[in-house]
Amino acid sequence: MKRFSGDISLVLGGAAGMGVQTVEALLVQVLKREGYNVFASKEYMSRIRGGSNSTEIRITDAKRAAFVKRIDFLFAMDKDVIPHLRDRIALDTIVLGELEKLRDVSEGCHIIDVPFTRFANELGNPIYTSTVAVGVALGLLHAEEKGLTEYLRDHFARKGEAVVAKNIEAGALGYAFGKHLAYAEGIEVIVAKRSAVAEELLLDGTEALGLGTLSAGCNYISSYPMSPGTGLLTFLAKHGNEFGVVVDQAEDEIAAINQGLGAWYAGARAIVTTSGGGFDLMTEGVSLAGIIETPIVVHIGQRPGPSTGLPTRTEQADLNLVLYAGHGEFPRAIFAPSTPEEAFLVAQQAFYIADKYQIPTFILTDQYFLDSVRSIPEDSLRTITRENFIIETAADYKRYAVTADGVSPRGIPGYGEGLVGIDSDEHDEEAHITESALMRVAMHEKRLRKMVGIRADALMPTERGDVKHAETLLVSWGSNRGVMEEALEVLNTPELAGLHFHQVYPLPVKAKKLFVKKKVIVLENNAGGQFANLLLLEYGIKVSDTVLQYDGNPFAVEDVVARLRALL
């Protein structure tokens, strides 16, 4: 008897174009409907067809949000999967695939023959292989067949009854085979179901960010596609008519950010989305936003660079890029979510801060976060009050009036009697170009005074464990909250607690006291320890150690635990 209990790692592998993502999408939906906690993350090569890609689906008693190297069940859809994932395949990994295809690469592997090609031929079309694979997985897990049938009926209803019937037949064929395998091979899978999970929202990072953006009142997006940031553009395009969002695919990133600034100037609430290489082209526009004091929200989906780098992999190496983007000195704020709840919140906060202080704000994500899927309770998505900071102008309106807090009243053309001037040269209060040294100092100091308010509005980090009494703090930011939390749980020592930052600049003043008399270890996906350096810059804190990774892959729980044990 082979027993798998409480935490199952099921991995789907195959070439691009073989339907691996289709199997994942169907499987996580059915499992969630059944009441299973699921967390899915994927890795894929930069090609339209071919290569070798994989998706990991964790099915767990407790909610998890981290990648593990361990594979319990590997669905190998072609012969390249085993060599590609060889370092993750253990003696007790069960590999399911066509033995004839895998024979030459299967040495040392426990292979169970699943005749996908024969099943597809029996069904009359290779397209049904994906549904068969979903059925096999569910049968192996002893899930309810009824849930699969109901989901297939709902999912394929728009394609007609014939397609629905054929997919139900394919699912049933796979399910029966999977259930037979479980008994024949003596496989027992025990994972708790929770009825509340069935009612939760199943979201990937892009969808959560998109929902937060809509909740913030975004009504304009102008972007040039660049993975992994493109997902936000397509999400808002999909729902644009429903929510009144104007969607423009600009000719390049320079045009995109300038159009976004123009939209804010006219009274819209705009966002642009890109990746690091595209953001390089936007930096002049960021500097423009700084001097004309016009809000803009920029989403950057990080991937490894320099240049094209690894365009479909993940990394957290663009913090410095965003922190110092644009020439000259001007205020900004940077957010970096790790959970759907955080993405929903920081999207709203980014718009709020941009509008309130008339500055550029940035949302840093990465491929791992954007593509990861999990379920969350709907009521965990917290909506913050949406405020409109536009004023009706009077005849004597001064766009850049010097104020104590640095924030000048922002009007828009046509709303009131005043003239809403704007200029990218240094200017006076009425937006007239000036080279007066006194006016330059007054304007520059006015803009910089905004940082006092921006810091006061900064979001506090999330604490994990007994931060007050722990000797060592493990600090994460962005997408690494899940792996940080699970590593702390595995280590289970009172000397170690965690802090997770979903606002990374400016850091909240009140959080500095949490670091007093602590050893600090920072966990981040880059080679330079960029957030560790920022802690020194912002708080004067010298980090004791860093746990870094920059191979294009997300942190694995096992690796983080091992490295922390060595440090502790």
- End-to-end Cα distance, whole Å, is 38 Å
What is the C-level CATH assignment of the largest domain? Alpha Beta
- Please mark out the parts with pLDDT under 50 across 5 or more consecutive residues, or reply none: none
CATH topology (fold) name of the largest domain: Pyruvate-ferredoxin Oxidoreductase, domain 3
Major β-sheet annotation: 8 strands, mixed
Number of strands: 22
Task: Give an overview in words.
By secondary structure, this protein is of the alpha/beta class. It has four domains: 2-199, Pyruvate-ferredoxin Oxidoreductase, domain 3, CATH 3.40.920; 204-380, Thiamin diphosphate (ThDP)-binding fold, Pyr/PP domains (Rossmann fold), CATH 3.40.50.970; 390-457, no CATH class; 462-567, Rossmann fold. It is built from 19 helices and 22 strands. The strands form four sheets. It has an eight-stranded mixed beta sheet. Helix 11 (253-265) runs parallel beside helix 12 (276-292). The chain is globular, with a radius of gyration of 26 Å. The mean pLDDT is 95.
Keywords:
568 residues, Rossmann fold, alpha/beta, 38% helix
Blueprint of the fold:
Layout: E1 2-5, E2 7-16, H1 20-34, E3 37-43, E4 50-60, E5 73-76, H2 81-84, E6 94-97, H3 99-102, E7 110-113, H4 116-123, H5 129-140, H6 145-155, H7 161-184, E8 187-190, H8 195-198, E9 201-204, H9 205-215, E10 220-223, H10 230-243, E11 246-249, H11 253-265, E12 270-274, H12 276-292, E13 296-302, H13 319-323, E14 333-335, H14 340-357, E15 360-366, H15 367-371, E16 373-376, H16 437-456, E17 462-464, E18 472-477, H17 481-491, E19 496-501, E20 503-505, E21 519-524, H18 530-539, E22 545-548, H19 557-567
Parallel strand pairs: 1-8, 2-5, 5-6, 6-7, 10-11, 10-12, 12-13, 13-15, 14-15, 18-19, 18-21, 21-22
Antiparallel strand pairs: 2-4, 3-4, 3-16, 9-16, 14-20, 17-19
Helix pairs in contact: 1-5, 1-6, 5-7, 6-7, 9-10, 9-14, 11-12, 17-19
